[in-house]
Structure formats: C-alpha cells, structure tokens
Input
Amino acid sequence: MEKGYFAENPLKGLRWQAPAVNEEVDPAAVPNPAQVLRLLEAVARQRGRGAHLEAFFGCMYFAAMRPAEVIHVRIEQCHLQKTGWGMLNLSGGVATSGKGWTDDGEVHEVHSLKRRAASATRPVPIPPQFVRMLLTAFESRRTVSSSSP
Output
C-alpha cells in the first residue's frame, strides 16, 4: 500500500486467526551441559574450520545468540580477558535473504537486534570457559590469515 502498488488493501475484510502453538521447549529435545561440551569438542576436532565452528556454536550455547547475531559479531564487540569472565556487546545480525529480497541488492542484509530499537545493543556476560574458546578461535584465525599468500 505504502509504495502505491495497490489502490486498496487486498486483505481488507480477511478474517484469520493464527493457530494456537505450543511455545514450550521439550526438555528431552535439548542437550544437557555435558552433551553440549562433547558436541563442541567434536566440532573443534574438525580440520580447517573446527575452532571457528566451535566458537560459532559456542556463541549459540554460552551466550544464547541467534545464528544471525553470531555471524554479525565482530572482535571489537568482544571484551575478553585472559582469565575470568568476558562480555559481548551485541548490536545486530546478518540475514541471508537473496539479492531479490534486499533493499540494496546484496545477498546479506544487516539488521538491528530482534525486538529492539535500531541502535540498541545487548551486553552478554560470558563464562571463562567460553572466553578461552573465543580467544582460541581468534588466534587460529589470525594464524591462518597471516600464513595466507
């Protein structure tokens, strides 16, 4: 309507209600902490991108991040000490929509945090174990990029 493609709203008069859904997560479908650590260790042992993928899935587990937020996180947003707790300051996500569906014709579109103001950030404290995981991933990435021709 706003763009002037329709003279009147084609959905006017449509009566529809969303079906009731169960919003609860079945605890039996969620891995327990020991299982998650074994999964992350197995991912880390993969050749090539193991440390990268361990950090990716670690973000989802330890920091409760959505995949789009993990893709968007930058090292500048990570406050990591060699020991103790760290902090991630999240500012948005990256959605993959396809060139035909984005405003600028790019495949990826950066957006703000879900259900927050465009300029909002979300500070997320992270435990020492995850801090070490991220430091390892960043170090392995530096090593790979410095050895590339």
Notes: The chain has a mean pLDDT of 81.
